[in-house]
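Hi support team,

I'm filing this because I wasn't sure whether my run with zinc ion finished correctly. The job status page said complete, but I'd like someone to confirm that the output block is well-formed before I use it downstream. Pasting the exact inputs I used:
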Amino acid sequence: MEKRLRIAVQKSGRLSEVSMELLAECGISIKNGKGALVASASNFPIDILYLRDDDIPQYVEDGTADLGILGENVLEESGVKVTIAKRLDFSKCRLSLAIPKGAAYEGIAYFHQKRIATSYPNILKKFLAANGLEADVHNISGSVEIAPNIGLADAICDIVSSGSTLLSNGLKEVAVIFQSEAVLIANPNLTTEGVAILEKLLFRLNAVMTARNNKYIVLNAPNEAIPNIINVLPGMKSPTVVPLAQEGWSALHSVLSEDQFWDVIGELKAAGAQGILVVPIEKMIL
Ligand code: PRT
Ligand code: ZN
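And here is everything the job wrote out:
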């Protein structure tokens, strides 16, 4: 029988849709039986296992799943030893310490002998120990942000993204203790056949993620402006220049990273570029 890998993804929550979208962009189509626990890809040798994110590290460590997609914060908290095969550049967030906004704060010594509520007791205890601090860590599983207001804790340690949850609960973020993003993890003991499937998947992920970070750019310019425009463009290699029907004009095609685009657009116009088109790239193989 053909070798297949099992990949664990979050059943429902912040990561579920994005994880499945990423696999779909990799050309992996999954018929999603509503409420199913397992689903098979029809055109790639993987099966999907839908789980709570907290269960994913254990499943991948013991080999029930070969791969998994989850937040690095959950992986770190679990303490499980698996391989991070790829950082996925989505669901970025941070695990931070926060205190009532009126409290005076002069550094992390603040937390010595304080009561801190968190759903991440292991990461927090490690941080406290590394900084020579002793605190009373209260492990609570949800709505950590209300703990100070109901007198359950002096501070919290929780996931922060925009910061609006802290703000609306009268708290301020004072220290970041862990930076997180979604990661693809792998069981360290995959067979040779398993590794070959993982490598195919990584090749596709790289093509999709590189494409997401880049834009295809097309612009028109008078021929004499082309050398200056090429100087401005930090493109992949040298850009393609194609003559236009109108004498003395050319179209220039290149690839720009999303970050570079906004920096150079003004310079391109100043150098004589017109009719600038920016087009998303579907896949990009370097
Ligand atoms: O049911 P299951 O156990 O599978 O899901 P879950 O409820 O444990 O996790 P879920 O779906 O809430 O989050 C999954 C992962 O998304 C987390 O482990 C993080 O890696 C990542 N992530 C990214 C976040 C956030 N951003 C986030 N903002 N996880 C949680 N939050 C919460 C945070 O706990 C706090 O309550 O959002 C609030 C803060 O958000 P801001 O924007 O107000 O700062
Ligand atoms: Zn969870």
